[in-house]
Amino acid sequence: MSSLSKVNANRINAKSSTGPKSAAGRRRTSQNARRHGLNIPVLLDPILAQEVKTLARQLSQSLKNLDLVDAAYAIAEAEIDLKRIRNIKRDIFHMLNALRPPTTRSEWRNKPNLDFSAGQRFSAGQRVEADATALLEQMLRIDRYERRALARRRSAIQRVTSCIQENSTGPQNWQNEAKKTNNFKGAVAIDHQFKAGRQPALSSGSAVRHTLRDSAENLLMDVFDAVASRYSCRAFLPTPVPERIVRDIVERAARAPSAGNMQPWRIYALAGARVEKLKTLMAPRMATELPRGEGADYTIYPQPLAEPYSARRFQVGELLYKAIGVPREDKPARYKQYARNYRFFGAPVALFFARENAHGPAQWADIGGYLQTVCLLARGHGLHTCPQQAWVSFHRTVREFLKLPPHLMIYSGMALGYADEQAPINGWRSPRAPLGDYASFDGFES
Fold this sequence. Notes:
The protein is α+β, with helices and mostly antiparallel strands.
């Protein structure tokens, strides 16, 4: 039970508070928040969320300690929220400064009427005074949001200060702390995000930030980062990917364009025992059936393959095998690496993309767009992918395993999971042709 002095102190604080003390007051404050957009959390506004991300990256660029990084994001969120609130207060101040009695009938009709009942009549002076009073009341109500943001920022800064005083910021220390708190899996997932060049999702007591951390981490990576950091990952960590994240990716990817909005894709997502069963089914066949397998269900590379496409394909193959030290003449070693396709390169999640047999080139292109969207959304969750048309060579096995209906055929497979950034095979990137080789621009004025 609180002491008498504590109770008295709380009563004094309550009396000096400008926050709402009645149901009507809380309703007015809520309406005020909606009027100015303050009821929308900073992280649910895409523009403000991007500002938070940018500022947090600057604050936490050299930090690896989880507490420090989380505090850096909290500081950034509070700072951007303060900026938003102070911009609103500035606008109200400008409105106050611009108030003056209307001098013409037209001005009187067009004068904004903030809080007046219909039919009331005011003199010019009364009208300006009432407008000013209403604006000042709005500013007073907004003050509490500013104080709240200032308190959040101050608290986060104090966390940084105390953490720096008490702990080293080395990655080994925070991993040890994560183990002590039985949260090592979560820490490993966040470590993957660091290695992938992005900061981990925010955490705090607020329901909004908790939701963002669990299901909207893509707010923390913009589309430019996602495109630039995507590559075909050929070595994954066994860290499981929650079903809710895979569902989120697959569902959001359906925003990909398709001719006539046909949405011609059909997706099969596998994890856990189902992935292991398929890998077990394929394992004994690798020694004798590579590289042709059962024969492709469709032609992946036209024959003969003309230039410059043949040279590009040759080059990327050389770069891949060079990364793992396999010479061109060592075919057994090359087949061994190729066989890792059928183990999904160690990824915990497998996706299969199917299409209608009757569909043509336009629908093939649509599914390609969907597949690319999956790759980019995966990056938003700190995940990597590897599209795998290699599975087309075992289309009959995949058809039977997935129980595909007769009217569908496999378009591609895909490995999905957290990249093993230490694996040599993930340390190279396939080159791209210069812009002038594939694009022309005409008619632009600047």
